[in-house]
Description:
Elements: E1 2-6, E2 10-11, E3 17-24, E4 33-40, E5 47-53, E6 58-60, E7 68-73, E8 78-83, E9 92-100, E10 106-109, E11 113-117
Amino acid sequence: VQLQESGPGLVKPSQTLSLTCTVSGGSITTHFYYWSWIRQPPGKGLEWMGAIAYSGSTHYSPSLKSRTSISRDTSKNQFTLQLSSVTPEDTAVYYCARVAVPLVDYDYWGQGTQVTVSS
Length: 119
């Protein structure tokens, strides 16, 4: 299984950040996998942002829920992150990753993509 993030590397403050994760070697609808977005700001630890399940249900970090939307395109085997009203504090390396029920260990990760929020 391979995951690859794509999207703009620079976003202006107040705009919406949009990233896509393209999955190959496995279907995003396969039971019982969850497909997550995780980020790492400079000098900080990993932060789970949210996930979309094999069923299509979505789950978000409470701290980001009001600004986050995760969707999928099963025909392209992709899932997408949208983060609205970004600020420089949203500057981070963004990763997509897969985890299986019972949601303990992430077994596959994308390489990560740097997103900088700056005017």
